[in-house]
What does this fold into?
Amino acid sequence: MATAPNRASKPNAAKETLYAWEGKDKLGKVVRGETRAAGETIVNASLRRQGIIVTKIKKKSYSTGKKITDKDITLFTRQLSTMMKAGVPLLQSFDIVGKGHANPAVAKLLMDIRGDVETGTSLNQAFRKYPLYFDALFCNLVGAGEQAGILEDLLNRLAIYKEKTLAIKGKIKSALTYPIVILCVAFIVTSVIMIWVVPAFAEVFKSFGAALPAPTLFVMALSDFFVKYWYLIFGGTFGSVYFFFQAWQRNIQMQRFMDRILLQAPVFGSVIRKATIARWTRTLATMFSAGVPLVEALDSVGGASGNAVYLDATIKIQTEVTTGTSLTVAMQNANVFPPMVTQMVAIGEESGALDAMLGKVADFYEAEVDDAVAALSSMMEPIIMVVLGVLIGGLVVSLYLPIFKLGSVV
It folds into this structure.
């Protein structure tokens, strides 16, 4: 297995930094390069031993780069797994991936982890220093792979798990994004009509000298409100949306409330529930197949499901399993899993192939999510067209009713 040597880490080891240097070799030729070291003095000493006279040296700072996303971590996991399976040493694998990455923030993260591993820190402990990017599940599986000597296989399972999880999240986001974008565009178009178009028609209607139809009067009154309080409407709408999402992200009670609401939503609830079950079973299958004990595996499963309802259910399941209850009975008592899931788990427990059965459940629900998202997209298009037609068409008809009435009188 290609891995880093297991050296005892020095308690006061200085953190290495990347330095860019310039100097002259023994022939007087100008040479340049980059070196990782704990300080400029060490760089100077190292280069002098190579016969290079240093003329310039400075610490190289990484550009900030873009935010590190789940996609970046998933790609890194796949690349690291591939290179280690090909026999590339661990440190060299980090060099290849880090230096070849387009995002400087990812490159810096990987070089920092590489520096920790080079000083003797185990790979999973190096990952644990960055919990924002590597969760407990990731670190636990890497640790299990290091202990069992199957790091390459565990990294491959991790890459598959993260790729499937990322694909499900992407499908859910695409299903939710389309109607939200359409509604935002409809709001903007309606606002433009109310603020600029309707007042122009109102000036024309003043010269009619006749009573206007009720729909037209309603639209004109609504337009006057938009013109007079546009800053409150836009500020209140965008402010409310911003503070709502901030509260959703930061407030635990708000998260629990919204997770329950999403699971019960009439159109999207079924898709979200299927995606959550797929992530739950995929996570448990990955952990269990890696040799992690069931009770310990459940520690990571609830959070990985991405839903507070299933997190609470997982805590309850873990408590019951700890006291000797079978996983099947504990899942049935949680009342959040369909009968098909618990039946498959029961078969897995009886046959001793629980990880394989959980994997089959995950495959089934991932396929269900694909089909549900496709059906949802097909269903949303005509609904959105009807909503937009009624909204925009109703405004246009309301504005033209007085003109039709005037034409009939003439």
The CA atoms of residues 83 and 93 lie 6 Å apart.
